[in-house]
Request: fold
Amino acid sequence: MRRIMLTVAYDGTAYNGWQVQPNGITIEGELNRALKELLGEDISVIGASRTDAGVHALCNMAVFDTESRILPEKIASALNARLPEDIRVQRSVEVAPDFHPRRCHTKKTYEYRIYMGKYENPIGRQYAHFVYVPLDVEKMEKAAGYLVGEHDFKSFCVAKAQVLTTVRTLYGIEVKKEGNYLTIRVSGSGFLFNMVRIIAGTLLEVGKGKLAPEQVKEILEAKDRQEAGPTAPARGLTLVSFEFCE
Amino acid sequence: MRRIMLTVAYDGTAYNGWQVQPNGITIEGELNRALKELLGEDISVIGASRTDAGVHALCNMAVFDTESRILPEKIASALNARLPEDIRVQRSVEVAPDFHPRRCHTKKTYEYRIYMGKYENPIGRQYAHFVYVPLDVEKMEKAAGYLVGEHDFKSFCVAKAQVLTTVRTLYGIEVKKEGNYLTIRVSGSGFLFNMVRIIAGTLLEVGKGKLAPEQVKEILEAKDRQEAGPTAPARGLTLVSFEFCE
Reply:
């Protein structure tokens, strides 16, 4: 028995998120199906990030165990031949038998992309949230600064999240404007359910002038989901990097 | 009667090109339908660039005449409410009654985008041609240099093109690598049918080492479509800018 790790890129537009569920197709479900076709075994991959419906990834991670003697590095292209074109395995390697992608120290980076314009840009609309009101980028940067570090992010996660603790550490947030695109880049050890999208939705309220940058500090302290901004749409969010730390 | 000019952006993935045809939906057909819904008149827009099936545009131009007294600048958003999300009018203005977008001096710029990697990137795959073999960018740049200026581009257009002359002027070609993307940016006064895609296909042959840069000069001189490289896939091509010159 060997444990294999896959690096998986996907366009989440057509999927009900990562995790297998009774209704609708999922990334995990497509990987399990393609692995069964390839290896003839019933396989349930373990994913590192269970991304929401409509969220994209350049490098999510998944592991599975197999009895097969196929060369680990050959699995990526063999799987790609059995996957739809919106999912592409970028790498396949053997890892230690006890390696578990959710029980490691990790650094994950998400990007939330916003297209600013009078009208939406149809090209790349699947990967950006469209905003037609002008945004004050400097204020958004200032507001983002309050979120960096170790905090209780209870205000920035779905109200009924079933987790032991809502304390998380953000390594950094960068708000960057390039042409008509604004990118909010967030790095951390781990994220609560909907956390990046609620951060993006709150920073957008600041950019629109509905919240002052300093209010983001108060929102954190309130530990109440009602205080933060709305959850920004899934299409703007992409998991862009994933590092395992020692 | 007033003449209105539209600036139109579209994701061409789902369309059989710009021009109305008996089978399949087209950008022009969708614009005509939306204009009829909005203005109650039978309208046939005149497009500036009749892009091929699958080709994208940030700023194609179209004009039409209307009896309606709607404010010209209001037409863009009213049309967008009646168009599918992969077509978005960016601007609507009144122009002179004799203005014709194909009878003007223009500068058009197309970009042909290539994603280079071991495996395809599902994110943005609709807007890039995937190439997994390494490309020699310097050789592609050198080859591109031979195409700049006024030439007979007979080798770079479909063999049976019905045009008065195959002489065209290219103002410039730029080959630029950014991360895993290679962009071939071509500017000219006008282009023959499939010309940019055949240029891209030929430069790709140079990048792969199947043609020497100097051979591009010979291909031009041969005036024979058989001598040039294959027509690169439509998905990589986008009309990115359109200027009317005096």
